[in-house]
Amino acid sequence: MDFLKSQLMERIKFTALVNLFSLVKLPLIAFVTPEFTDLTPERCVVKIRLGYRTRNHLNSMYFGALAIGAELSIAAPAIQAIQESGQRIDFIFKDFEAQFLKRGDAHVLFTCDGVQGVRDLVLKAAEHPERFEQQFEGYAKTVKSDEPIMKYKLTLSVKSRAKK
Question: Which in 54, 58, 140, 150 has the greatest CB count within 10 A?
Answer without folding.
Answer: 140
